[in-house]
TrEMBL record:
Keyword Nucleus attached: no
Organism, scientific name: Nocardioides flavus (ex Wang et al. 2016)
Protein's name according to its UniProt entry: 4-diphosphocytidyl-2-C-methyl-D-erythritol kinase
Bilayer-spanning residue ranges: none
PANTHER family per UniProt: 4-DIPHOSPHOCYTIDYL-2-C-METHYL-D-ERYTHRITOL KINASE, CHLOROPLASTIC
Signal peptide: none
Superkingdom assignment: Bacteria
Functional pathway: Isoprenoid biosynthesis; isopentenyl diphosphate biosynthesis via DXP pathway; isopentenyl diphosphate from 1-deoxy-D-xylulose 5-phosphate: step 3/6
Family: Belongs to the GHMP kinase family. IspE subfamily.
Length: 296
């Protein structure tokens, strides 16, 4: 008996970051969107704990711990009541890419555990478990388009009837999320306590018009990420020259994402970028949060 859960990568359409709190975390006002780039996690009961990861060549499988420090194993340690488990992850979300790949696996493990053991816990309980694992994990459960506050873990769904086409360009070497936040602090020692609100973006989302959304995309971690990796600035300019409405760093980076006018435009931008960049992935959002699927 096994259960497979699919969980999506995220983009931050808006990422407002405030001055660090006393606990070291930064207050956020963010708008997440789940896109159709997925990890699948399969869970079964076993004699001893084990974890294996497989993925396409662009996924840095060697950069993923397979011991108790893997976020999927941490999730199980949080909730398991004695049983050992075998975990298989089929990974497509770039590692340390700013797309919440680890968080997706943490959310998938929580949901798979709940379903495998027929616990049928409430959303409230699962969301509280997710918040203990990491700031992005509750959103990985919820999916769709949602506003995140607190340190990102307080998630509120947003009605989003749009279909948004993206082109995703991962980097071959990841960036550390804490390092990007530390660099934000260096660049902005006088950052206000309150993060920037996504007022314009929420209005643009409601119109369903990509040109309007493009004008309101905002990421406070873009500047530190580009300062650490200047080539990301070149990539963003190139994607916009290829016809994207707007390019931006995804979360803490280094993955860059490009909003396009529609499906055909995304395919054209992807074809143009493919001449220079090895991995270029068209994607659409919003999509569902973590959910059970039949193993493929
Ligand atoms: C950059 C984002 O992806 C935007 O959604 C998230 O803020 C990162 O979320 P995450 O990877 O789930 O982060 P966590 O695992 O909770 O924290 C990892 C580290 O990131 C930094 N961190 C994270 C979230 C936050 N609001 N402030 C922070 O300063 C802290 O150094 C923390 O020790
Ligand atoms: N299941 C997992 N998948 C990927 N990385 C994991 C996993 N478990 C632990 N890690 C570790 O966590 C680090 C960050 O990985 P992750 O892919 O979640 O970064 P990220 O997408 O930049 O995160 P975020 O966008 O939430 O800040 C990796 O470098 C790796 O060492």
């Amino acid at each position: 008996m096994s259960v497979t859960v699919r969980a999506a990568a995220k983009i931050n359409l808006h990422l407002g970051v405030g001055a660090p709190r006393e606990d070291g975390f930064h207050p956020l006002d963010t708008v997440y969107q789940a896109i159709d780039l997925y990890d699948d996690l399969t869970l079964s009961v076993a004699g001893e704990d084990s974890l294996t990861v497989a993925g396409p060549p662009y996924v840095d499988v060697d950069g993923i711990p397979t011991d108790a420090s893997n976020i999927a194993m941490r999730a199980l340690a949080e909730v398991a009541c004695g049983d050992a488990h075998a975990v298989r992850i089929s990974k497509r979300v770039p590692v340390a890419g700013g797309m919440a790949g680890g968080s997706a696996d943490g959310a998938a493990a929580l949901l798979a555990h709940d379903r495998l053991h027929v616990l049928d816990q409430s959303d409230e309980v699962l969301l509280a478990q997710a918040a203990r694992l990491g700031s992005d994990v509750p959103f990985s459960l919820v999916g769709g388009t949602a506003r995140g506050r607190g340190r990102g873990e307080v998630v509120e769904r947003i009605e989003d009837l749009g279909t948004w086409w993206w082109v995703v360009v991962p980097a071959s070497v990841g960036l550390s999320t804490p390092e990007v936040y530390r660099h934000f602090d260096r660049l902005h020692p006088d950052a206000p306590a309150q993060p920037a609100e996504p007022t314009g973006l929420l209005a643009a989302l409601a119109t369903g018009e990509p040109v309007r959304l493009a004008r309101t995309l905002h990421n406070d971690l873009e500047e530190p990420a580009i300062d650490l990796r200047p080539e990301l600035g070149t990539l963003i300019e190139r994607g916009e020259a290829e016809g994207a409405l707007r390019g931006m760093v995804s979360g803490s980076g280094p993955t860059c994402v490009f909003l396009c006018a529609g499906r055909d435009e995304a395919m054209a931008v992807a074809a143009g970028l493919s001449a220079t960049y090895d991995v270029v992935l068209p994607a659409v959002g919003p999509v569902a949060g973590a959910h059970v699927v039949h193993p493929g």
